[in-house]
Amino acid sequence: MVAIKSNLDAFALLKEWAKIHPHDEPVAISDLSEERSAVRIDQVVYALDSSVISRGMFEHTYQIKDRLIVRMDLKKL
Asked: How confident is the model at residue 10 (pLDDT cuts 50, 70, 90)?
């Protein structure tokens, strides 16, 4: 997990993201409870020259309150 503690941290992260092209493909959605859902993601990260940098499966877990996402957790599978 990346913790952004300042505007400088956010700027540095944006500079790094400008060097890659991530592609997230949802492959499964599960309702865990009335307020929680999980989405399994197949993620491929490409360099700007289209070469594959990494590939992996992740789970994004969302907590929903009053129809808004109040928390999102990421887990590598």
From this structure: low
Q: Does residue 1 carry a pLDDT above 60?
A: no
- Give the DSSP letter string of 53-76: EEEEEEEEEEEEETTEEEEEEEEE
Residue spans of the domains in the chain: they are: 22-76
Exposure string of 25-54, with b = 16+ CB inside 10 Å and e = fewer, is: eeeeeeeeeeeebbbbbeeeeeeeeeeeee
Maximum pairwise Cα distance, the chain: 43
Q: Which CATH architecture has domain 22-76?
A: Roll (3.10)
53 or 10, greater pLDDT:
53
